[in-house]
Amino acid sequence: MTNDARADSNFPNFENQPLTRGEYIQSVIHLYRGEMQRAVTWRSRLDTTTNWAIVVTVTALSYAFGAVEHPHIIIILANVIILTLLWVEARRYRYYDVWRTRLRKIEENFFAPLLRRDLQSPDARWGSIVAEDFLHPRFKIAFIHALKARLMRNYATLFLITLAAWLVKISVWSPRGHLEEGLAFSWARFYGAMGFSTLSPAVVLAVQAAFYGFLAVVMLFVRVPYGYSGEIHEITPDREFWDR
Predict the structure, then answer these.
(1) Is position 228 within any domain?
(2) What is the pLDDT at residue 67?
(3) Which segments of the chain have a pLDDT < 50?
(4) SS3 sequence, the chain?
(5) Is residue 71 one of the residues assigned to a domain?
(6) In terms of residue numbers, what domain contains 182?
(7) Is residue 6 part of a domain?
């Protein structure tokens, strides 16, 4: 027998020994804490991109309306940056969702039965499902679904604000690049004000229509799986219990 074999024989083989109930509970609790820390880390990254999108929106609008000579094109450029941040946030949300779904499985099938003094989990396969996800991690949500989830949650409001600001800006903007006081509103002047430098009004209008058309298609026709736009949907019927 080699020295390595004799050394290995001196240690107990814990994998062949059954876990006690206490050891099992402690293991799941530590697992839950670790997964919660991962989820919190990725959740904070979602907040970071959202905060940057808000900063970009405020900065762009402040500059656009800060002086008459500032062009409206800055608002369109801000939309490009905000869309990029939305793209990054959707990608981060897919990673956050990996930890979120694991936590929900543990909460639904371990902590909830434990609090009810029920030894039977709602899903008897939950342990095997979570274990398989540890062995072969996979995303639980497609990128387009994550994109809509974050768009509906935060970014739709920002894009509506920039659209309204852009319409206001060009409504008081002349094709010559300055505000014309006392000039009556006309659709011809409104359309002409959409142009910028060598870009014709038709090009700018087409870009804006395509941009907001894409957002509308995502919001109206992409179906997000249940729970990804928010798991808490209504007020609890036993609110008096929680108000105590």
Answers:
(1) yes
(2) 77
(3) 175, 177-179, 182
(4) CCHHHHHHHCCCCHHHCCCCHHHHHHHHHHHHHHHHHHHHHHHHHHHHHHHHHHHHHHHHHHHHCCCCCCCCHHHHHHHHHHHHHHHHHHHHHHHHHHHHHHHHHHHHHHHHHHHCCCCCCCCCCHHHHHHHHHHCCCCCCCHHHHHHHHHHHHHHHHHHHHHHHHHHHHHCCCCCCCCCCCCCCCHHHHHHCCCECCECHHHHHHHHHHHHHHHHHHHHHCCCCCCCCCCCCCCCCCHHHHCC
(5) yes
(6) 18-237
(7) no
Interhelix angle 156-171/201-221, rounded to 10 degrees, is: 160
**In this predicted structure, what is the pLDDT of residue 144?**
93
Give the whole-angstrom CA distance, residue 60 versus residue 73: 10
pLDDT at 64: 85
Residue 10 belongs to some domain of the structure: no
Specify the pLDDT at position 237: 67
| CA angle, residues 166, 171, 173, in degrees to nearest 5 | 95
Dist CA 140 CA 94 (whole Å): 7
Spatial contact of 39 and 79, defined as CB atoms under 8 Å apart: no
91 phi, psi to nearest 5 deg: -65, -45
Burial group, residue 217, by CB count within 10 angstroms (0-12, 13-18, 19+):
exposed
Largest CA distance in the chain: 101
Token pair for 35: 């997964």
Number of domains in the chain: 1
